[in-house]
Amino acid sequence: MEMSRSALLFSALLLFLTYTTAPASSAAAAPANKYIKTSCTMTTYPLVCEQSLSAYAKTIQNNPQLLASIALQVSLNRTKVAQTFMNRLGKFKGLKPRQYGAIHDCKEEVEDSLDRVSRSCDEMKDLGRAKGNEFSFRMSNVETWVSAALTDETTCMDGFAGKGMDGKIKESVRAQVVAVARVTSNALALVNNFAAKHKN
Question: What does UniProt give as the signal peptide span (predicted)?
Answer without folding.
Answer: 1-23
